[in-house]
Specification:
With 223 residues, the protein is of the alpha+beta class. It contains two helices and eleven strands, in the order αββββββββαβββ. It has a nine-stranded mixed sheet. It has a two-stranded antiparallel sheet with strand order 3-7. Strand 9 (192-198) and strand 10 (205-210) form a beta hairpin.
Length: 223
C-alpha cells in the first residue's frame, strides 16, 4: 500500500510537470508571436513616419516663389493690360521645380483661367532688350492661348533649363509670360487680380495685385 501511494504521487508530480511545461511553451509561443507582430508594426510605422516626414518637409520647405510681376499696356493705342511677366524662382531648400508640370491659376472679378506650359513659346538666356517684345507670349490667334504660358529665361547658371524639360533649381530665375488679351480680353484699370503658381511639389507662389488707376506708362510694376 505504501508503494502504491508513492507510485501515484510520483505520477501526479509528473503530470503537473508536463502541464507546466505545456503552459510555459504556450506562453513562449504567444510571446514570440506578439513580439513578431509588434516588431512588424513598429517597422511599418517607422517607415511610414519617415515617408510622411520627408513628404511634409518637401511640401513645407520647398516650392516656388514669386520675385516680381510686371505688366504691359500699349498706351499709344489707349490699351489696357495685355501682357503679364511673372518672375519666379525656387524656394530655399527646393531640389528643383519642373515648370512643365506647373500650372498657373489667374482670376479677376469676372473670369478664372488655368494655364500650363507650352514649348512653342520659350527663349534662352541670351539677353532681351525688351521682354514684352520677346516671342514668348502665346499669340491670341494661335491655338488656345487662354490655357498657356511661355517661359523667358533670365538666369540659368547650370544650364538646367531646356525647352522640353524646363527645370529650375537654386539660383535660376525665369519669367512666366501670359497674354492677358487671350486669357481675359485685356485687364482694365482698378481690377483686382489674384491666383496661384502651383508646382508639382511644394508651396505655391501667390499672385495678388490691383491694376493701376490709369495706364500712363507702357510698363509698370504690379507686385
Amino acid at each position: 500500500m505504501r508503494n502504491l501511494f508513492r507510485t501515484l504521487k510520483k505520477k501526479d508530480v509528473g503530470s503537473i510537470g508536463i502541464g507546466a511545461m505545456i503552459v510555459f511553451i504556450a506562453m513562449v509561443l504567444v510571446a514570440g508571436i506578439a513580439a513578431s507582430v509588434l516588431i512588424q508594426t513598429s517597422t511599418k510605422l517607422e517607415a511610414q513616419a519617415m515617408s510622411t516626414g520627408s513628404e511634409t518637409t518637401n511640401e513645407v520647405a520647398s516650392g516656388i516663389a514669386i520675385f516680381d510681376i510686371e505688366g504691359y499696356a500699349d498706351t499709344s493705342a489707349d490699351g489696357d493690360l495685355s501682357k503679364l511677366a511673372i518672375m519666379v524662382r525656387p524656394r530655399a531648400g527646393t531640389d528643383g521645380v519642373d515648370l512643365s508640370q506647373t500650372y498657373v491659376e489667374l482670376a479677376d472679378n469676372n473670369k478664372k483661367v488655368i494655364l500650363n506650359y507650352t514649348t512653342t513659346y520659350y527663349a534662352e538666356p541670351d539677353g532681351q532688350d525688351d521682354i514684352f517684345s520677346a516671342a514668348v507670349f502665346p499669340e491670341a490667334s494661335a491655338g488656345n492661348p487662354a490655357s498657356q504660358f511661355g517661359i523667358l529665361v533670365i538666369e540659368d547658371a547650370d544650364d538646367s533649363l531646356k525647352q522640353a524639360t524646363p527645370l529650375i533649381n537654386r539660383g535660376d530665375k525665369v519669367f512666366l509670360c501670359i497674354n492677358t488679351t487671350g486669357t481675359h480680353s485685356d485687364m482694365a484699370e482698378r481690377v483686382s487680380v489674384w491666383g496661384l503658381i502651383v508646382p508639382e511639389f511644394g508651396s505655391p507662389g501667390v499672385i495678388s495685385f490691383t491694376t493701376p488707376a490709369s495706364y500712363t506708362d507702357d510698363v509698370f510694376d504690379l507686385q
